[in-house]
Design goal:
Elements (H helix, E strand, L loop, with lengths): L1 H12 L3 H14 L4 H13 L3 H8 L13 H16 L3 H8 L4 H6 L1 H10 L3 H7 L13 H16 L3 H13 L4 H17 L3 H14 L7 H8 L1
Length: 228
Protein backbone atom coordinates (compact mmCIF):
# COMPACT_ATOMS: atom_id res chain seq x y z
CA UNK A 1 0.00 0.00 0.00
CA UNK A 2 3.04 2.26 0.09
CA UNK A 3 2.28 3.50 -3.41
CA UNK A 4 -1.05 4.86 -2.19
CA UNK A 5 0.38 6.28 1.02
CA UNK A 6 3.11 8.21 -0.79
CA UNK A 7 0.67 9.63 -3.35
CA UNK A 8 -1.90 10.58 -0.70
CA UNK A 9 0.79 12.25 1.42
CA UNK A 10 1.99 14.23 -1.59
CA UNK A 11 -1.55 15.34 -2.45
CA UNK A 12 -2.26 16.45 1.13
CA UNK A 13 0.94 18.46 1.38
CA UNK A 14 0.24 20.06 -2.01
CA UNK A 15 -3.34 20.93 -1.01
CA UNK A 16 -4.75 18.83 -3.87
CA UNK A 17 -7.88 17.93 -1.96
CA UNK A 18 -9.89 16.32 -4.77
CA UNK A 19 -6.93 14.14 -5.72
CA UNK A 20 -6.33 13.19 -2.10
CA UNK A 21 -9.98 12.20 -1.59
CA UNK A 22 -9.92 10.07 -4.74
CA UNK A 23 -6.73 8.32 -3.67
CA UNK A 24 -8.03 7.66 -0.15
CA UNK A 25 -11.08 5.89 -1.61
CA UNK A 26 -8.84 3.84 -3.90
CA UNK A 27 -6.65 2.94 -0.93
CA UNK A 28 -9.65 1.77 1.10
CA UNK A 29 -10.96 -0.39 -1.74
CA UNK A 30 -7.53 -1.90 -2.36
CA UNK A 31 -7.16 -2.79 1.33
CA UNK A 32 -10.76 -4.09 1.50
CA UNK A 33 -11.86 -1.57 4.14
CA UNK A 34 -10.02 -3.33 6.96
CA UNK A 35 -10.13 -1.62 10.38
CA UNK A 36 -6.45 -0.71 9.99
CA UNK A 37 -7.09 0.89 6.59
CA UNK A 38 -10.09 2.83 7.89
CA UNK A 39 -8.03 4.17 10.78
CA UNK A 40 -5.36 5.37 8.35
CA UNK A 41 -8.00 6.90 6.07
CA UNK A 42 -9.59 8.71 9.00
CA UNK A 43 -6.28 10.34 9.83
CA UNK A 44 -5.83 11.42 6.21
CA UNK A 45 -9.31 12.96 6.22
CA UNK A 46 -8.52 14.70 9.51
CA UNK A 47 -5.47 16.31 7.96
CA UNK A 48 -7.65 17.45 5.06
CA UNK A 49 -9.99 19.05 7.66
CA UNK A 50 -12.86 16.86 6.43
CA UNK A 51 -13.83 15.84 9.93
CA UNK A 52 -17.21 14.33 9.05
CA UNK A 53 -15.59 11.90 6.62
CA UNK A 54 -12.86 11.25 9.17
CA UNK A 55 -15.49 10.11 11.65
CA UNK A 56 -17.50 8.08 9.11
CA UNK A 57 -14.37 6.29 7.90
CA UNK A 58 -13.97 4.68 11.32
CA UNK A 59 -17.19 2.73 10.87
CA UNK A 60 -19.13 0.70 13.41
CA UNK A 61 -16.09 0.01 15.59
CA UNK A 62 -16.20 3.56 16.95
CA UNK A 63 -18.04 4.27 20.22
CA UNK A 64 -18.63 0.69 21.29
CA UNK A 65 -18.16 1.78 24.90
CA UNK A 66 -16.73 -1.64 25.68
CA UNK A 67 -13.12 -0.95 26.54
CA UNK A 68 -12.43 -4.30 28.13
CA UNK A 69 -11.02 -6.85 25.72
CA UNK A 70 -10.55 -4.48 22.79
CA UNK A 71 -7.63 -5.18 20.48
CA UNK A 72 -4.96 -2.58 19.74
CA UNK A 73 -6.55 -1.36 16.50
CA UNK A 74 -10.00 -1.14 18.09
CA UNK A 75 -8.62 1.01 20.93
CA UNK A 76 -6.95 3.31 18.39
CA UNK A 77 -10.23 3.62 16.48
CA UNK A 78 -12.05 4.62 19.68
CA UNK A 79 -9.40 7.22 20.48
CA UNK A 80 -9.43 8.58 16.94
CA UNK A 81 -13.21 8.98 17.18
CA UNK A 82 -12.77 10.96 20.39
CA UNK A 83 -10.17 13.16 18.69
CA UNK A 84 -12.47 13.85 15.71
CA UNK A 85 -15.40 14.70 18.00
CA UNK A 86 -13.14 17.24 19.65
CA UNK A 87 -12.37 18.80 16.25
CA UNK A 88 -16.08 18.92 15.42
CA UNK A 89 -16.60 21.14 18.47
CA UNK A 90 -17.80 18.50 20.93
CA UNK A 91 -14.80 18.92 23.21
CA UNK A 92 -16.58 18.42 26.53
CA UNK A 93 -18.33 15.29 25.21
CA UNK A 94 -15.02 13.98 23.87
CA UNK A 95 -13.48 14.49 27.31
CA UNK A 96 -16.32 12.57 28.99
CA UNK A 97 -15.65 9.60 26.73
CA UNK A 98 -11.92 9.93 27.25
CA UNK A 99 -12.26 9.79 31.02
CA UNK A 100 -13.82 6.31 30.72
CA UNK A 101 -10.75 4.95 28.98
CA UNK A 102 -8.41 2.93 31.22
CA UNK A 103 -5.38 4.98 32.29
CA UNK A 104 -2.98 2.48 30.71
CA UNK A 105 -4.56 2.99 27.29
CA UNK A 106 -4.62 6.76 27.75
CA UNK A 107 -0.90 7.01 28.43
CA UNK A 108 -0.01 4.53 25.70
CA UNK A 109 -1.82 6.70 23.14
CA UNK A 110 -1.03 10.08 24.64
CA UNK A 111 -0.27 11.81 21.35
CA UNK A 112 -3.80 11.13 20.14
CA UNK A 113 -5.62 12.32 23.27
CA UNK A 114 -3.46 15.36 24.12
CA UNK A 115 -5.42 17.68 21.77
CA UNK A 116 -8.65 16.75 23.57
CA UNK A 117 -7.10 17.58 26.93
CA UNK A 118 -5.76 20.89 25.62
CA UNK A 119 -9.16 21.83 24.18
CA UNK A 120 -10.51 21.40 27.72
CA UNK A 121 -7.66 23.47 29.23
CA UNK A 122 -6.01 20.47 30.89
CA UNK A 123 -2.53 21.47 29.74
CA UNK A 124 -0.54 19.79 32.50
CA UNK A 125 -2.20 16.45 31.76
CA UNK A 126 -1.63 16.98 28.05
CA UNK A 127 2.04 17.73 28.59
CA UNK A 128 2.47 14.40 30.38
CA UNK A 129 0.91 12.68 27.36
CA UNK A 130 3.28 14.47 24.98
CA UNK A 131 6.39 13.33 26.83
CA UNK A 132 7.51 11.00 23.97
CA UNK A 133 7.98 14.06 21.74
CA UNK A 134 10.66 15.37 24.09
CA UNK A 135 12.79 12.31 23.34
CA UNK A 136 12.81 12.54 19.53
CA UNK A 137 16.28 13.08 18.11
CA UNK A 138 16.95 15.43 15.21
CA UNK A 139 17.76 12.47 12.98
CA UNK A 140 14.25 11.10 13.53
CA UNK A 141 12.37 14.31 12.72
CA UNK A 142 10.42 13.14 9.69
CA UNK A 143 7.37 15.10 8.47
CA UNK A 144 4.89 13.31 10.73
CA UNK A 145 6.98 13.85 13.87
CA UNK A 146 7.56 17.52 13.06
CA UNK A 147 3.82 17.95 12.63
CA UNK A 148 3.25 16.31 16.02
CA UNK A 149 5.74 18.69 17.65
CA UNK A 150 3.26 21.52 17.04
CA UNK A 151 1.03 19.93 19.68
CA UNK A 152 3.90 20.22 22.14
CA UNK A 153 4.49 23.89 21.31
CA UNK A 154 0.76 24.63 21.66
CA UNK A 155 0.77 22.90 25.04
CA UNK A 156 3.67 25.04 26.27
CA UNK A 157 1.80 28.09 25.02
CA UNK A 158 -1.32 27.08 26.95
CA UNK A 159 0.82 26.87 30.08
CA UNK A 160 2.20 30.36 29.42
CA UNK A 161 5.68 28.95 28.71
CA UNK A 162 6.13 30.99 25.55
CA UNK A 163 9.92 30.71 25.25
CA UNK A 164 9.70 26.91 25.30
CA UNK A 165 6.85 26.99 22.79
CA UNK A 166 8.91 29.09 20.39
CA UNK A 167 11.98 26.89 20.83
CA UNK A 168 9.94 23.90 19.68
CA UNK A 169 8.81 25.82 16.59
CA UNK A 170 12.40 26.90 15.93
CA UNK A 171 13.35 23.23 15.92
CA UNK A 172 10.57 22.40 13.47
CA UNK A 173 11.57 25.21 11.12
CA UNK A 174 15.23 24.20 11.24
CA UNK A 175 14.29 20.84 9.69
CA UNK A 176 11.44 21.91 7.42
CA UNK A 177 11.45 22.71 3.72
CA UNK A 178 7.78 21.89 3.05
CA UNK A 179 5.82 25.15 2.42
CA UNK A 180 2.66 23.93 4.16
CA UNK A 181 4.35 22.88 7.39
CA UNK A 182 6.46 26.04 7.38
CA UNK A 183 3.32 28.16 6.95
CA UNK A 184 1.54 26.40 9.83
CA UNK A 185 4.64 26.66 12.05
CA UNK A 186 5.12 30.38 11.39
CA UNK A 187 1.44 30.99 12.08
CA UNK A 188 1.86 29.24 15.45
CA UNK A 189 5.03 31.23 16.13
CA UNK A 190 3.25 34.51 15.44
CA UNK A 191 0.31 33.61 17.66
CA UNK A 192 2.65 32.87 20.59
CA UNK A 193 4.26 36.29 20.27
CA UNK A 194 0.83 37.97 20.19
CA UNK A 195 -0.44 36.06 23.23
CA UNK A 196 2.75 37.13 24.98
CA UNK A 197 1.92 40.75 24.16
CA UNK A 198 4.72 41.18 21.59
CA UNK A 199 2.47 42.36 18.77
CA UNK A 200 5.07 43.67 16.31
CA UNK A 201 7.12 40.47 16.40
CA UNK A 202 3.97 38.41 16.11
CA UNK A 203 2.84 40.40 13.09
CA UNK A 204 6.13 39.83 11.30
CA UNK A 205 5.89 36.07 11.82
CA UNK A 206 2.29 36.02 10.58
CA UNK A 207 3.21 37.94 7.43
CA UNK A 208 5.88 35.32 6.66
CA UNK A 209 3.22 32.66 7.09
CA UNK A 210 0.79 34.51 4.82
CA UNK A 211 3.27 34.45 1.94
CA UNK A 212 3.33 30.65 2.08
CA UNK A 213 -0.45 30.22 1.86
CA UNK A 214 -2.27 30.64 -1.42
CA UNK A 215 -4.71 33.55 -1.47
CA UNK A 216 -7.56 31.15 -2.24
CA UNK A 217 -6.59 28.58 0.38
CA UNK A 218 -9.84 27.83 2.25
CA UNK A 219 -8.43 25.45 4.85
CA UNK A 220 -8.68 25.83 8.66
CA UNK A 221 -4.90 26.38 8.81
CA UNK A 222 -5.23 29.49 6.65
CA UNK A 223 -8.29 30.48 8.68
CA UNK A 224 -6.27 30.42 11.91
CA UNK A 225 -3.74 32.75 10.29
CA UNK A 226 -6.44 35.17 9.13
CA UNK A 227 -7.96 35.12 12.63
CA UNK A 228 -4.71 36.41 14.09
Amino acid sequence: MKQFNDRIESAIQSRLHDEAHRLIQSYLRADKYTPEARLVASEYYRRLADFTKALKALGAEAFTGAWGGLGETEVEIELQAVRILNLLGASSYALQILEKIPMESRMKHGLRIAPVLMANYKYNEALACLDPLLKISDTDLDYDRRLKLLALSDCYCGLGRFDEAKRVVDRILAHTSEPLLEAISRQAYGSYFILEGRIDEGGKALLKSEKLFGARDCTPDHGFLLKW
